[in-house]
Amino acid sequence: MEDVATLGFIATTIGATWRLATPLIFAAIGEVFSERAGVLNIGLEGVMLVGAFVGFATMFTYGSLPLGLASAIAAGMVVGLLFAFFTITIKADQIVVGAAINLLGMGLTAFLFRTYFVGTGRGVEIAQPLDIPGLSDLPFFGEAFFRHNAIVYSTVLVALLAVVVLYKTSFGLTLRAVGEHPKAVDVVGRSVAAYRYGAVMIGTGLAGLGGAFLTLGHSNQFVENITSGRGFIALAVVVFARWSPVGAFFVAMLFGLFYALQLQLQAQPALNIPYQALQALPYVMTIVALVMVRNKADTPKMLGVPYNKA
Asked: How far apart are CA 224 and CA 45, in angstroms?
């Protein structure tokens, strides 16, 4: 019986790991695109909040999950366009603009939620787990891998697609060159600004989708600051993953494991660990991860540096 309970605990933890890692995977892979093009967007937290709220508001109003997800992606891209205008066109400091985006996201979503939704007390219908015949009912593996909704499974597709785009296409090659040697891209007649705009829009669109998962694929309600620092953790994931989409997927899964463990361990009163310490686990591990990554050899050379056409 003890072995069965242990296997059940492991299966539940693995399943929760993938679900809790999903918003980090979307945001981190999106940020890989942005940083590979030389643009550091620390405003991911604000973008994810906007995506979470817009996705929830759209689903609440129209009752369409695909429309809710699409609107969250579009909202993230609109915020990304604002960020790109100030950092790429006007060449404002990327850190300052990113911080402003975070403040805007937190303040605007809190204001709109309190104004239009806080008194309703209603949630929305979230994406339901897929029933995969022959797999969902498997002992251990069914619980761990085959009882998720389509948004969770799409993280694999997004990671693979990101690899193809970044490393197997002309667009990806040029985008990476923009983050390393933008002058060379400019010399051959391609617009550095256009590629950076494109990278930022991809990044913020995926971050908006990551935020929408929190309200449409995990919880059925929007609450203020629902992201709880996930945007900042996604930034750490990118660094720890060495700016690799596949690396970002697996590192995000590692952080998802920390989230899952702190939830599972809180349900084990025999451990007698203060719940505050368990809740801090993902954030403590973020700091540890950043301390461990000291080699900057893989950092895009022009990361955070505006391109000035001579």
From this structure: 12
Query: Which residue type is seen at 207?
Result: A
CB 298 within 8 A of CB 247: no
The whole-angstrom separation of Cα 82 and Cα 290 is 29
For residues 75-93, give the mean pLDDT.
97
Q: What is the DSSP letter of 20?
A: H
What percentage of the chain's residues is helix, strand, coil (to nearest 5)? 70, 0, 30
Task: Tell me how crowded residue 2 is: count the other CB atoms within 10 A of its CB.
Answer: 6
Instruction: State both tokens at 187.
Output: 């010399």
CA–CA separation, 307 vs 285, rounded Å?
34
Sign of CA dihedral 265, 282, 111, 212: negative
- Is 240 within 8 Å of 251 (Cβ atoms)? yes
What pTM, to 2 d.p., does this model score? 0.93
Reported confidence tier of residue 268, pLDDT bands at 50, 70, 90? low
272: which residues sit within 8 A by CB, 6+ positions away? none
Query: Is-contact 248 236, C-beta < 8 A?
Result: no
Compute the distance between CA of residue 38 and CA of residue 100 in angstroms, rounded to an integer: 19
Each residue of 161-191: b (16+ CB within 10 Å) or e?
Answer: ebbeebeeeeebebbbbbbeebeebbeeeee
Q: Which of 24, 17, 36, 43 is nearest to 206 (CA)?
A: 24
Residue type, position 163, single letter: V
Kindly list the distances between the CA atom of residue 74 and the CA atoms of 68, 91, 231, 256, 298, in Å, as whole numbers in the listed order.
Answer: 10, 24, 18, 26, 31
Between the CA atoms of 267, 269, 273 and 275, what dihedral angle is there, to the nearest 10 degrees? 40
207, 48 in Cβ contact below 8 A? yes
